[in-house]
Amino acid sequence: MSSHTYDYLDGNAAAGELSKIFAQDLTTAEGQCAHCGARKRFAEAHVYMQSPGVVARCAVCQNVLLRVVSVRQRVFLDLRGMTYLNLDTAHVQPSVFAQPDS
Amino acid sequence: MDIVSRGFTGRRSSADAKLPPGQYLTTDFPVLSAGPTPHVALDRWEFVIDDGTSVLRKWDWKSFRDLPTETITADLHCVTRWSKLGTSWEGVSLDTILADIKTDASYALARSYGDYTTNLPLNDLRNKQAWIAFRFDGKDLAPEHGGPARLLVPHLYLWKSAKWVRGITLMHQDKPGFWEGLGYHIYGDPWKEQRYSGDE
Amino acid sequence: MWRVGTVVALHDETATARTTTLEVPDWPDHVAGQHVDLRLTATDGYSAVRSYSIASAPNPQRRIELTIERLPNGEVSPYLTQELAVGDRLELRGPIGGWFVWRTQQTEPIQLIAGGSGIVPLMAMIRSRASAGSIAPFRLLYSLREPAAIFYRDELQALSDHDHSVGVSYAYTRTAPKDWPRPPGRIDAALIANATWPSKLVPTCYVCGPTSFVEGATDLLMASGNGRDRIRTERFGPTGDRK
To answer: Which fold has domain B24-29+46-192?
Structure first.
């Protein structure tokens, strides 16, 4: 059931929202789709941002990789769609440079 | 640190119309989606009512379109804060769909092509409160707005009006759908501003 | 995590796009390709957040440039391109993104492909290369509607004229200049073959623009022999965050 309407962005677009949760930038992380097993950089995930929350889908099979909802002072996170996320911590990429007082 | 951006108002217009709390009036029709637009050929489209185990009733596009229809004028309230008033639709009432279904289930899970689901009490689908809508503004419902057919339940936030609806599962216990399971309110009454779980 | 920047300069790139220079006192160094999120807040607390790529190379002045295109039905871009004035303050989050970046240590051939406003982060890469004195071979294929839509026109012209290690090619999709050798149209296999690095050189490719453009260009690059892992993409489009 593939779509010809290009109404998605990619993992880069979700990086700012994800920086509320993850100290490390996720766009460089390699993730494995729990549904089809495809391994890709999170930057290449198909991300739907025009909805009540952020939904990242596998570029290969369209299954949900992760979902994030920010409501008031809470963040809800669903990571069930990924078997793993693999980040390089030797070359640390902060997600956003945090200010000391924020 | 809250900076106010000088002169910024956003897309909102001052509304004389009565809107639910926290909503803004829009004149366009935003497309919000959690996934790719499904494209379902009418010769493969089905609408199925099941109880989680067995199929209770099933329609294909032809038998669905043979059902009596109604025109509906509805105000739409999206949880992302836009409201669109006086929209016109054509659809089949859920009272018609559920007419011959005997069930003691109290809840329903609307299921869509793709993987979207949303839950609501069965009573909120009855009594002229819900439709399976297939025409909007005088034209066939466009895929980006949920065509060929979507659920329309205007008294609740628009995320309950599942696009690309393919059926309803009747349930004895309430089970959260796609957004209800991730921070959104289980019921979603815009007039009580029930946006998020924990809202009264 | 939100910083405050002050608008210190405004410059129109085209009739609908404007470059805004922000001074951000605590700005850390960014890397070419990264973006910021801008947050606008109305007096009643309503806020909107949008992402914009950084157009400028890292510099010691703690200034960043954002080039923003005014969208006809945009909620935020009309404000940023028409209302915002020198002296105004903006909240921003960033720099964001570690994948769609070009680092000055990279020495391999670089193929940049821009669709419309997708030129912005790629221009940051070109500028970053210049200010670092890098001699990495760069080629840019810039696809856009018409000549009037070119961002950074003079700068790109000077590059074409004076720096032969950066090759610039244009593809016009609606209206081409008089006597242009190629009729208006989307980029295709022939253009990829003529205007981009041969895939046997194993370039790193950066493709940026609307999603449909990025998907098309990526398919063409792969069809001409570039491995998927040699192509980095960034898709632009509406986010419509209203909270």
So the answer is: Sulfite Oxidase; Chain A, domain 2 (3.90.420)
